[in-house]
């Protein structure tokens, strides 16, 4: 079955470390997104990519980096510059032109700083 | 002002009740509107899209008022399994989804 796979499900990071969250999709979707969710808050957009080798900053990009070398993959790196990285991270993808059913989410990665 | 605002909740209702959620959005150029459902510690899942003419999917009815920039979701005959957080979501002209903070619904026996 097609879908989005995020890994790991849970991740613990020591302060000062960079960590990379994986997001892979086999839906042949062009656009991919990274969101962050904090308790009691809505999802906030970190980065998005509408095509391979291109990506744009979202609303809260500081302290994060991404790459889009392959259509299927959109990894997110949480750098040591991100001062409050503990959150639930969600990856999503969509195929332009298939509104409104095109947005699919992965099951998320819960990152905790220890 | 937040781009998408929702009732704060939580809503605690008995099984069989009818419950309504409201949402307002600030960007009049917004193009598409959705309700997503999110279970505790899970990813959001699309519940239904919202059209100006109103649309229904079983016990769920969504309505959009573009003039007032207002979206609603009505759930009839609530089930225990409806307990979740309901997210109002708006797509702006740049292809980004803007999420509300969500309204938590708890249906009790």
How is this structure best summarized?
The complex is a heterodimer of chains A (114) and B (109). With 114 residues, chain A is mainly β.
The largest interface is: A-B, 25 and 18 residues
DSSP helix fraction of chain B: under 10%
Q: Kindly state the mean pLDDT of chain B as a whole number?
A: 92
Using the alpha-carbon principal axes, give the shape of chain A. Answer: globular
Provide the residue-averaged pLDDT of chain A.
91
Briefly note the structural class of the backbone of chain B: mainly beta
Structural class of chain A: mainly beta
Description:
Chain A has no helices and eleven strands. Chain A has 114 residues and is mainly beta. In chain A, strands 2, 4, 5, 6, 9, 10 and 11 form a seven-stranded mixed β-sheet that branches. In chain A, strands 1-3-8-7 form a four-stranded antiparallel β-sheet, with no helix packed on it. Chain A starts with a strand and ends with a strand. The mean pLDDT of chain A is 91. Chain B is built from no helices and eleven strands. In chain B, a hairpin with a 2-residue loop joins β6 and β7 (60-65). The A-B interface holds A 31, 33, 35, 40-45, 48, 50, 58, 88, 90, 92, 96, 99-101, 103, 105-108, 110 and B 4, 32, 34, 41-46, 49, 87, 95-97, 99-102.
């Amino acid at each position: 079955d097609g879908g989005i796979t995020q890994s790991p499900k849970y991740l613990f990071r020591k302060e000062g470390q960079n960590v990379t969250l994986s997001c892979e999709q086999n839906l042949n979707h062009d656009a991919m997104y990274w969101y962050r969710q904090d308790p009691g808050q809505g999802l906030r957009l970190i980065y998005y990519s509408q095509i391979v080798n291109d990506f744009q900053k979202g609303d809260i990009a500081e302290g994060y980096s991404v790459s889009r070398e392959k259509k299927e993959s959109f990894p997110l790196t949480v750098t040591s510059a991100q001062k409050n990285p503990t959150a639930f991270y969600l990856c999503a993808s969509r195929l332009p032109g298939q509104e409104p059913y095109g947005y699919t989410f992965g099951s998320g990665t819960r990152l905790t700083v220890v | 002002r937040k781009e998408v605002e929702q009732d704060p909740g939580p809503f605690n209702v008995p099984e069989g009740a009818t419950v309504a959620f409201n949402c307002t959005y600030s960007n009049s150029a917004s193009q598409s509107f959705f309700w997503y459902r999110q279970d505790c510690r899970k990813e959001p899942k699309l519940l239904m899209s919202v059209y100006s003419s109103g649309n229904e999917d079983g016990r769920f009815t969504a309505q959009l008022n573009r003039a007032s920039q207002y979206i609603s979701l009505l759930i009839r005959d609530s089930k225990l399994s409806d307990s979740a957080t309901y997210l109002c979501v708006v797509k702006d002209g740049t292809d980004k989804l803007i999420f509300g903070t969500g309204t938590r619904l708890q249906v009790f026996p």
